[in-house]
Write the structure tokens for this entry.
Amino acid sequence: MKLSDEQLEVFRRDGLLILPSLFSAAEVAAIRAALPPLYDEESEANIGEKAGTAPRTMMGLHQRSDLFDRLVRHPRLVEPARQIAGPDLYIQQVKVNVKAAYEGDVWQWHYDFATHHRDDGVPAPQALNLHILLDEVSHYNGPLYFIPGSHRHEPLPTFHDVTSTSYPLWVVDRETVTNLIAVGGITPALGPPGTVLIFGDLMVHGSPGNMSPWDRAIFSLILNPVANAQTAFARPEYKHHTDFSPVVPLADDCLLEPAAAQ
Ligand code: SIN
Ligand code: MN
């Protein structure tokens, strides 16, 4: 699957592409069906919310599930990523952010490169984050908020927030966010299950808590150019995978026809 020139232009201008219903209902059902056994696993790669019992994020999923091992090589994710970031991309991070009904906690305003650079020694902001909405995402169940144009700045100042949530994150301060929003506004990433979001390492984003009765699970794959691989290894492998071999896309029907993945 190739992005059009118009889509590439939107990505360059806004720093975000929203591709509604790129994955079918049957494909989303297959992805969701793979989740319950992973929720149940005793794994340090399953990180709970700070309060309550709900899972916050489940990481390293392609190493824990055949379905996710195919999904990280899906051509509808990998081919657009290669168009934007170059042909040789490795799998940096694979997770589902759960954001459970009533319990899903906030993700503070941040851009991913701050963590990739400071914690993992990634040299340049070239990684791409590819999301698939696994539930209908509305204004009510904790949608991601993006600040269009925020990716066109040099890396902004950040501080390490280890207290707000259960997940340590390098975050952007309020004054900086206020100034960015004054220029770019906020775009909420809403849409039906199967919708794909693509954004880069400098894009400032976050999401509010989910106080609705509706879950909001999102799959996230981060791909980074092999030539821009991490140089520091302080974080656990499930937060930044260390197999730097380039990802090779599978056939388009690899989720529903596993034989096609051979
Ligand atoms: C979220 O799940 O709302 C945050 C995801 C991200 O930071 O990529
Ligand atoms: Mn992020």
Summary: The domain at 5-243+250-257 is CATH 2.60.120.620 (Jelly Rolls). The two ends are 20 Å apart (CA to CA). The mean pLDDT is 96. Residues 75-85 form the longest helix (11 residues).
